[in-house]
Fold this sequence. Notes:
With 374 residues, the chain is an alpha/beta fold. Helix content is 34%, strand content 21%. The protein folds into 2 domains: 91 residues, NAD(P)-binding Rossmann-like Domain (Rossmann fold), CATH 3.40.50; 195 residues, Vaccinia Virus protein VP39 (Rossmann fold, 3-Layer(aba) Sandwich). A hairpin with a 7-residue loop joins strand 10 and strand 11. It is globular and about 65 Å long.
Amino acid sequence: MSASPYTSFAQLAMAAARPPAQIDAVSPVWIFGAGNFECSLCRVMQDRGISVAGFVETQPQAGTALDLPVVDWSTLATKSSKAQLALGIYNRGVPFDELVSIANKAGFAHMFMPWDVYDAFAQDLGWRYWLSKRDFLLAGLDRIARVGERLADQESRDILLRVAAFRLGLDLSFASFQSAENQYFNKFTLPPLQGKSITYVDCGAYSGDTYIDLTSQPGIHCAQSFLLEPDSTNFAAMVSGVGTCHPGVVCLPLAAADKYSILTFNSGQGEGGSIGTNGNTHIAAVALDDLLPLTTVNLIKLDVEGAEAHVLQGARRIIDRSRPVLTLSLYHNPQDLWALPELLFDMCEDYSFHVRQHYYNSFDLVLYAIPHAH
């Protein structure tokens, strides 16, 4: 890992005590990117009375978006060499430091980052994974620091500090950092499972790809696996891909939660389907404790688009009874940095906890909870 500019959360809090970047509402804004988040940002700015001049892309795929021009960098430099720029690209695909470098090479020295625009427009943009208002993250720094003290290795503590610094706009180089370990199945999770006949539970199983990855690991034998996926398109792909040709696999068209309920769900989002009040369909959700009341479970993976805490609450008896290895996403909500570890610390006695970063821009941040051998 490259060197961090900060060595403690106290130092980070002092560095963060600066006025946030402010968009000039009088001057037009150009948005880097022209995808879904970028278009949402454009609409919000326009609703707030901010003039959006258009979009800039390195290789424009269309001439217009939302009836505004989409230009390349050389055209933008000609049209508006001192333009206000807002980075609207918000995903795990390309690291932010690389995107900033593209703008810098085109002659633009400053850009409003996703955390800058979210700080200004959070109410209108709504839930956007780990983005938060600056004050909310600053208020959580003490709790994040206490979480860090409970983690089992220095790299985990360094990653937690750097994630907080990155999301405060103070460590841009972390955007391109990825841990050396494989996601989910690595030096933490595999040793307690090897040489056993295990039961695996995957909440948010998508197409069954993580199950396939697990079964390809040396020394791993899945006697039975329960793969939960509420999105109908993903579920059909999972049944076709693994449900009909892998003995011991049970594919379930369900979401995991803290109790049985019928929930509104945003389907058709690929890996990103999520529970929400404005969903386009309804799904059944169930607590793992009710689904598997007597089953001994060895491994649970949670990637449930922000519902991880609810799923853990609905699996208390399984965790207490089985002491499974746990892997859970730590990036779907800003408070996940402290709230999910705190919940696991309460639920999992005699465990070790590790954090690893598996993709760009602090997406695919994973918490690993590993039971000590008895």
